[in-house]
Amino acid sequence: MTTTEHPGIEQSGSTGAGPGETARVWTLHLLCFVLPLTCLAYLLTAPHAWWAALPWFLVVVVSVIADMRSPGELRQPAADMPQRPFDLVLYLLVALQVANVALLVRMVHLHGFWSVGTLVGLLLVGIDSGYSGIVVAHELVHRPQHHMILLGRLLLSTVLYEHFTVEHVRGHHARVGTPEDPATARFGETALEFFRRTVPAQFRSAWRLENKRLGDEDMAWHDSRILGNRCLHGIVFEWGIAVLVLVMLGPGPFAIHLLQALIAVRLLEAVNYFEHWGLARAGRKVTPIDSWDTDSRFSLYTLVGLSRHADHHAHAARPYPQLRHFEESPKLPHGYFGTVFLLLFDNAEFRRIMTEELRRRRLGPFAENAAA
Questions:
Q1: Is 186 domain-assigned?
Q2: Sign for the pseudo-dihedral over CA of 22, 298, 150, 146
Q3: For residue 372, is it within any domain?
């Protein structure tokens, strides 16, 4: 594992995890509360006139700008960093995600669906559900503790995507960078093409993985063993909540619940899209060159370490404050916020930049063994 000189990037090896170092890193990770707390404050103070609602969306705009201008972070984590303070961050984010989705539904029930204030609330919560709810769920479902996995599944249920637990951990991590992985974007594939392909393909993959665990990958729907399928459990739970909202609160709250989930899933799959775009491996162990990551300090500390994705795939159960920087992994043009903005609004430019990085590092279709 090597590093090279980069302008504007703080470089340091791993330091000891004394109280000061732990407090420093923990404090930086508190940036992950900015968006969910903004959502909470907005929803608790609703309703808002259109002119008072629009400024609240600036938190998203500022996040994108800050991420695109963020300095890099090459500091490696201390090996003996205590986990409890960082786990507390995860538990608080779980509570905020559940509260924000519930308050959004309540806001529409009390104040109506058709207003600028509702639109701003939808965008804030939808984006937060993607960047806080699903990101935190991703961290939790990789943990070995049963209660953390359950909390991760709960978060995914708030965006109607609970099958991600099965597909991501047992499917994507085993098949990343191969044609068999529906969550690996192919070289040249557009974001919209990927979204249309990956969403149904990931669900089918998760369903088959669960059926295989129960004894028959091609199990019929009427087979009694299918009652043990965890994807089925997730569907019943998450859609049971959605139907309950419809029955008790009406079509407006039901629609807003579905729409915030759609925004969250769209953002999740935008991240999936760029995390392995154009990369390929065959017949070898997953290494840091099989995932895109970024040096952005802003992404690292606002997204509970997700941006160090190369190390995550090399060591999936490693807690987020322990994830390391790898120089050899291909680098995104910006942090996660900036890259999602680029790929959604100028996908051709995104693909051009990513292609140049692959060519420079001789990866994907430009690797020496690409033909094989």
A1: yes
A2: negative
A3: no
